[in-house]
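In the current project phase, work has continued on tokenised descriptions of protein folds. One protein thus recorded appears below exactly as we store it.

——
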Amino acid sequence: MPGTPSPSSAIHSMPTITTPRLDLIPLTPAFLEASLAGDRAAAERLLGLSVPTDWFGEQALMNYRLPELRRDPDLQPWLLRAIGLRDEGVMAGHIGFHTAPDPEYLQDLAPCGVEFGYTVYPAYRRQGIATEAAAALMAWAHAEHRVSRFVLSIQPGNAPSLRLAAHFGFRRIGSHVDEEDGPEDIFELVWPES
């Protein structure tokens, strides 16, 4: 069930979010440090999963998130999580919120909301992994923290992410130019109350 801590979460500093196929495991400072050092054995030991080469190419992301977690450990449950394929024992990508809920930059577009992003590595695409992980992450934020507004920023040509947004019923609420990614459309989902 999405949002349920995994029995193996004791080896991690924060509860793992589980789905039928996936474990969304917080990427701790120790894991990021080992990854930045190129120490695959240590990274895999800390994560409890095989870590593909794709991850080690994301140095800029690691260098961005590590200082944030050092400054504010309370951000850990909100930021990067490995998308672990449980049966295969492998990190298939990562997902996470950009901030804790209600950041200043979303005040005008989606007050009290939170933006998230994800990457599924090429070998694991077209298997519904991003959809399953996104559903679980949003369900966790809603169930545990009463977050009801979610934001995605998507480049206009990113057809898989546009399909994911449409699947969940995200609606376009604006656009901007990202310093790294260029033009992006901004989408919002208001989580249905039960």
In short: The longest strand covers residues 182-190. Residues 1-13 have pLDDT under 50 and may be disordered.
